[in-house]
User: Which sequence fits this backbone?
C-alpha cells in the first residue's frame, strides 16, 4: 500500500539505500531524488495509480513476450513478487520506508511525462513510446527537466528486479526443505533459466555419470610454474 | 569457566588452517559465527548433512528478519551479495562467509599465488621481515599438498577456455593455467552456477581438511558463536567473550588468543576489545579487488559449459611495454548469475531476450582490479559495522586508477573476444572512454568487491601496522591475528593461498614459541 505521508523521508531513504548498493546517486548522476519532490510537489502524485501496475508495465518492457514467455505470461503475481520479495525483502532487507520511496518513484515515473512535456503518462503510452521513454530514462535524458534523479530510481530498480525475478524460476523458486537433491518441479511456463538452456540441479543418475566421466581424469599437481611474474 | 591453551576466533582459511596445525600440540577452542555442518569428509560425494546444507542456503542474502531470499533455505550466509542494513557504505559486499570453513568454504576454488613483486612490496610498505617469497615458499607448498592443489587435464578444459588461451597467446598476451584446490570435482555447476557451496566436498576448504584434523586431535569447536570481544587485562589477552544461543560465555586462554575473523571481522573484534584505542591502525589500510564480468557471444560452437563452471586459465592485462597491469583476468564460460545481474545492466526488451537465447554461445571473463588507488577503512563495531570500500574516495569520487585499469582491461579482453569471432561483447570495448567509465560505475557495485585484506597489517613498526612479523599484536601480549587482515600490501590474486601460507607460518611460531613444543617431521596431507 502506497502512502503519501512522509514521502520525502521515504525517497531520501530509498536514495540512501540505493546509493549504498550502486553509488549511482552519489557519484555518477548526483543526488537529488528528494529534491525533485520539492520541485514538482503533489503534481508528481496527482493521479496516484497503483504502483504495482507501473512496475508490471516496466516488466513487460524489460522482458516482452515473443516466441518465448515474458513478464506478462507470468502475471498475476510476478509483479507482487518482484516488488515485495525481491525489492523490499531482498534488496532492502525489509526496510518499509525505502520501499515506500520505491513506490513513490514508480508513481512519479508514470506521472512525469506530461509534466515535462514528453507525452502522456507512462501507463497511457503506446508500447513503442513506453520503450522509448524507458530507454531515455536509463540514458539520462531527463536531467534538464529536473526529474531524472527520481524516475531513474524506478527505472533502475525495475530493470534490476524484473530480470532477477524472471530468473528466480517464479513461482517455483523455493528450495525443498531437507531435500538432498534439489530437482525442481517442472515450470509450467519457461523462465529465464529455461530460455537460456540452463539444466538445473544435477539429479542422482547424472551424478553417477559425472563421476564416471571425471573421477578418472588425471590431475596435474601444483600451480603453473611457467608464470614468470611469480 | 573453561580454560584452553589457545582460543581461535574464526574458522575460515586462516583460523581453520592454523587450528589443524596446532591442535596436536595443545588444547584449542575454535569459535565461529556460522554453522558447522558435520559429517566425515568425502570428496566427490559429500556427507548427507552437507549435501542438504548446500542446497538450503539463502543464496547471497542475509537480513535481520532472516526471510529475504530468492532461493529461500534453512541456513544463510553472507555471500556474495551482502545487504547489511548496518553497513551504509556497502553495496555488493563480500564481507564474510559465516560458516565453518569461511571463505575457503564458499570461494570458487581458484588457487593463485601472489606475484614476486607483491612480496617485495610487503617489506617496502611496512618493513615486515620473514615475508619474502623464499620465506613463504615452504608454507605455500605445504598448503598446496594439504588442499590437493592441481590443474585440470587439458581434456577436461572447457572448449571456450582453450580457444581463449590460443587467441590471447596469438596476440602476445601470456596466459597461464589456473590451479584449483578441488579434489574429485564432478563439475556439477552447483557451486558457482547456482551460487551455493560445494555439496560434494570437492572444494578443499578448511572445513574438509584442517578442521576435521583439529577436531580429531581434541580441539573443541563452538559454532554459531558471535565473538563479542577479546578479554584484555594489563595489556595481555586472557580470553574471549562470545554469545551462543543468547547466552554470554567467557572462555580463558592460557597462552594465546587468535583473531581470525577475516579482513572485516577481525578489526571489528579488535575495536570491540578496545585495541583501536591503543593502536589507531586497526581497521585502516583496507585493500580489496573490485571485480567486473565481461561477456561475449560467439555463435557456431556451443561451449561445453552445460554443467561445470571452470576457471581453466588466467592472464594479466598487459600494457604497451609488455608489463602486467593491475588487472587479473579469469576466462570462463558458464556463470548464469551474470545474465540477470551484471552482464546486461542497460539491456532490456528484445535485445536482452536475444542474449538469453544466445547463452549457450556465451564466454565470459571475470576481471579483478588488483591495486586500487584508494584505501578503505573498517569502522564501527561487531554489532554495527561500517566499511568504506576502496572504490570511493573521501569525497565520494570514484577511484580514477581503478577506472583507468579496468577500461584498459575491457579494451584488451574485448580485442581477444573479437579475434575469437564474437558478435557481441559486453561491455563493448570500442565505446568512448566516458561511456565505458559510466558503464563500469554501474557494473562494479553489482559485480562486487572481493578479497578484502590489510586491515590489521603486519609490519615492523607499530606506527604503521597492527601486528608484528609473526602476526602478534604490537600492543597486546598473547594476541595474534591470522587471516587476510595481516597482509601488509595488496596481493595480485585472491587471498586464499596467501592466508593459508601465513597460517602455516603462524602455526610454526605458535607451536615453538607459544606452546614450547618441537615441530614434527612433515606430516602427510589430511586423510580425506
Assistant:
Amino acid at each position: 500500500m502506497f502512502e503519501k505521508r512522509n514521502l520525502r523521508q521515504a525517497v531520501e531513504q530509498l536514495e540512501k539505500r540505493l546509493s549504498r548498493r550502486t553509488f549511482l546517486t552519489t557519484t555518477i548522476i548526483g543526488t537529488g531524488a528528494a529534491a525533485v519532490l520539492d520541485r514538482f510537489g503533489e503534481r508528481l502524485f496527482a493521479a496516484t495509480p497503483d504502483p504495482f501496475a507501473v512496475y508490471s508495465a516496466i516488466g513487460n518492457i524489460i522482458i516482452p513476450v515473443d516466441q518465448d514467455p515474458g513478464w506478462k505470461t507470468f502475471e498475476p503475481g510476478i509483479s507482487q513478487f518482484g516488488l515485495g520479495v525481491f525489492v523490499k525483502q531482498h534488496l532492502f532487507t525489509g526496510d518499509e520506508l525505502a520501499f515506500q520511496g520505491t513506490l513513490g518513484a514508480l508513481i512519479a515515473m508514470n506521472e512525469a511525462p506530461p509534466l515535462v512535456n514528453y507525452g502522456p503518462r507512462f501507463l497511457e503510452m503506446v508500447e513503442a513510446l513506453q520503450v522509448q521513454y524507458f530507454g531515455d530514462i536509463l540514458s539520462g535524458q531527463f536531467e534538464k527537466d529536473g526529474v531524472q534523479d527520481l524516475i531513474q530510481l524506478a527505472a533502475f530498480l525495475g530493470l534490476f528486479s524484473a530480470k532477477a525475478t524472471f530468473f528466480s524460476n517464479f513461482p517455483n523458486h523455493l528450495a525443498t526443505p531437507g531435500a538432498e537433491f534439489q530437482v525442481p518441479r517442472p515450470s509450467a511456463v519457461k523462465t529465464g533459466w529455461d530460455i537460456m538452456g540452463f539444466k538445473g540441479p544435477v539429479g542422482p543418475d547424472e551424478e553417477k555419470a559425472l563421476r564416471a566421466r571425471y573421477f578418472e581424469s588425471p590431475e596435474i599437481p601444483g600451480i603453473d610454474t611457467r608464470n614468470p611474474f611469480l | 569457566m573453561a580454560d584452553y591453551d589457545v582460543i581461535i576466533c574464526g574458522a575460515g582459511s586462516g583460523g581453520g588452517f592454523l587450528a589443524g596445525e596446532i591442535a596436536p600440540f595443545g588444547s584449542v577452542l575454535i569459535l565461529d559465527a556460522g554453522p558447522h555442518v558435520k559429517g566425515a569428509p568425502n570428496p566427490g560425494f559429500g556427507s548427507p548433512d552437507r549435501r542438504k546444507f548446500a542446497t538450503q542456503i539463502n543464496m547471497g542474502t542475509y537480513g535481520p528478519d532472516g526471510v529475504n531470499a530468492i532461493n529461500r533455505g534453512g541456513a544463510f550466509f553472507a555471500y556474495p551479495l551482502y545487504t547489511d542494513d548496518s553497513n551504509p557504505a556497502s553495496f555488493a559486499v563480500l564481507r564474510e562467509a559465516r560458516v565453518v570453513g569461511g571463505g575457503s568454504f564458499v570461494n570458487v576454488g581458484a588457487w593463485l599465488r601472489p606475484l614476486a613483486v607483491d612480496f617485495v612490496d610487503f617489506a617496502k610498505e611496512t618493513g615486515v621481515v620473514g615475508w619474502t617469497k623464499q620465506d613463504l615458499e615452504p608454507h605455500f607448498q605445504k598448503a598446496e599438498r594439504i588442499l590437493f592443489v592441481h590443474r585440470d587435464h587439458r581434456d577436461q578444459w572447457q572448449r571456450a577456455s582453450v580457444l581463449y588461451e590460443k587467441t590471447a597467446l596469438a596476440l602476445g598476451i601470456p596466459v597461464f593455467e589456473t590451479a584449483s584446490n578441488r579434489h574429485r570435482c564432478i563439475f556439477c555447476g552447483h557451486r558457482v552456477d547456482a551460487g551455493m557451496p560445494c555439496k560434494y566436498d570437492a572444494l578443499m576448504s578448511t572445513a574438509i581438511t584442517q578442521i576435521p584434523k583439529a577436531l580429531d586431535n581434541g580441539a573443541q569447536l563452538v559454532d554459531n558463536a558471535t565473538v563479542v570481544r577479546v578479554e584484555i587485562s594489563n595489556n595481555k589477552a586472557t580470553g574471549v567473550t562470545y554469545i551462543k544461543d543468547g547466552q554470554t560465555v567467557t572462555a580463558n586462554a592460557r597462552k594465546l588468543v587468535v583473531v581470525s575473523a577475516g579482513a572485516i571481522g577481525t578489526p571489528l573484534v579488535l575495536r570491540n576489545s578496545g585495541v583501536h584505542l591503543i593502536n589507531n591502525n586497526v581497521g585502516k589500510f583496507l585493500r580489496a579487488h573490485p571485480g567486473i564480468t565481461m561477456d561475449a557471444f560467439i555463435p557456431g560452437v556451443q561451449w561445453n559449459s552445460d554443467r561445470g563452471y571452470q576457471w581453466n586459465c588466467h592472464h594479466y592485462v598487459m600494457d604497451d611495454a609488455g608489463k602486467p597491469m593491475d588487472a587479473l583476468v579469469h576466462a570462463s564460460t558458464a556463470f548464469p548469475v551474470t545474465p540477470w545481474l551484471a552482464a546486461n545492466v542497460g539491456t532490456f526488451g528484445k535485445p536482452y531476450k536475444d542474449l538469453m537465447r544466445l547463452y549457450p554461445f556465451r564466454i565470459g571473463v571475470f576481471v579483478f582490479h588488483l591495486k586500487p588507488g584508494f584505501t578503505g577503512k573498517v569502522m564501527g563495531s561487531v554489532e554495527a559495522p561500517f566499511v568504506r570500500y576502496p572504490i570511493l574516495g573521501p569525497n565520494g569520487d570514484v577511484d580514477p586508477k581503478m577506472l583507468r585499469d579496468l577500461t584498459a582491461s575491457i579494451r584488451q579482453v574485448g580485442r581477444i573476444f573479437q579475434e575469437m569471432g564474437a558478435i557481441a561483447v559486453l561491455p563493448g570495448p570500442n565505446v568512448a572512454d566516458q561511456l565505458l567509465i559510466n558503464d563500469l560505475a554501474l557494473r562494479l557495485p553489482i559485480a562486487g568487491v572481493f578479497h578484502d585484506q590489510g586491515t590489521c597489517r603486519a609490519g615492523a613498526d607499530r606506527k604503521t601496522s597492527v601486528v608484528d612479523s609473526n602476526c602478534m599484536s604490537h600492543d597486546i601480549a598473547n594476541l595474534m591475528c591470522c587471516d587476510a587482515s595481516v597482509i601488509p600490501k595488496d596481493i595480485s590474486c585472491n587471498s586464499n593461498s596467501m592466508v593459508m601460507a601465513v597460517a602455516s607460518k603462524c602455526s610454526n611460531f605458535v607451536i615453538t614459541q607459544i606452546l614450547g613444543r618441537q615441530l614434527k617431521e612433515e606430516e602427510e596431507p589430511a586423510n580425506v
